[in-house]
Structure prediction request, 403 residues.
Amino acid sequence: MSDFVWFLASVGTWSMFPFSLFLAFLTFKGLSRSGRSAQGVSGSGYCPRLLVVIPAHNEEVSIAITIQSVLAANYPKDSFQVLVLADNCSDRTAEIAEAEGAFVYVRTDALRRGKGFALEDSFTKVLKDPRFSEMEGFMVLDADSTVGSDVLRQFAHALQKGADFAQCYSSVGNRDASIRTQLLTYALSLFNGVYMHGLERAGLGAHLRGNGMGFSRAGYIRRPWSASSLAEDLEFSWRLRFQGEKVCFLGEATIFAEMPSQSGPSVSQRARWEHGRAYLKKEYTKALLHADVSFLKRLLWLIDLWMPSLSNLCGIVFLSFFVLIGMYVTQGCLGIVSVAAALNVLSIFFYLGSPFFIMRLPVRYLASLWFAPYYAIWRMGVLLKKKPQEWIRTARERREGAK
Prediction:
């Protein structure tokens, strides 16, 4: 029996070894974050013209606050516009958006439903619309979000430096609404912050996260949107990678998204993400093995593609470690697998502690980790649910100031 337990612990240790070391590698790279100028655009006085595109499906509760946030950004008012994509709406989203000063496209398509299709169809219209002919960059913003005051300046600065694709740092707007939103704030500082900084600084290219992603006009014309899976933003990221493009991460440009304070309303969203990522692993592994890049980059991309969720990674790493420690105490040295298990644990702790010095996250959010075991169990239940067949809107909680 002890041999079988040792075998399982060894498999758990070695199977997670590449992923834990990869996280430590990205954390180390993230320490050398680029520190983009908070001023954003250069001192020449020229500001690229920007279009903020907001896909919205029945978002009458949130859309006004989102538009107001963008219009209040620290950027010349005559250098940007807001466009709302009212996609298959049955409420007052379009009416409210127009009242707030945004342009509106109304889209109705019962078959091609979801954010991916809405972006693909609407950008085709944008490029032909004379009202937007002078726009040099496009930023996509979720309809339940607000923006930091310097987001547009940071994006404009990236465009001026030659970036064609960019992703802002997406965090939580209602971070102290509950223990759950505090844990999500911490988790996103890892997933949307440290991880992305590391990818960019390692030369691997960041991922698009959907909310706060941006394209130059030239970049979009060269690589138009062509993703409509359950994880359309991540799918498009991988397509860009295979096409030789690189996504720039704007760690100083923060988008604040409203998150459900309780787990119930977010089940459909989490199921969509999890099944979408599983589809990408199946779809792109073979292509990645034959990608025309160096062996090292192919290996790192493969680890990135197959990276397990942090809850699964931590569970396997720590369980294997403590089993091996117990067997070491009772039976003596277990050899190189013990060293690998210890490196796994150290790498995970290095990564888990990184948001407090890389993303400047307040230390008080560390206390939310007591909720992590419950979240891991809830997430396992989500994985057992039937795969969503289409995009399903996450129920919004009414935001302060909403009309």
Remarks:
- Confidence is low (pLDDT under 50) at residues 34-39.
- The longest helix spans residues 2-30.
- The chain has two domains: 2-31+302-383, 50-285.
- The radius of gyration is 22 Å.
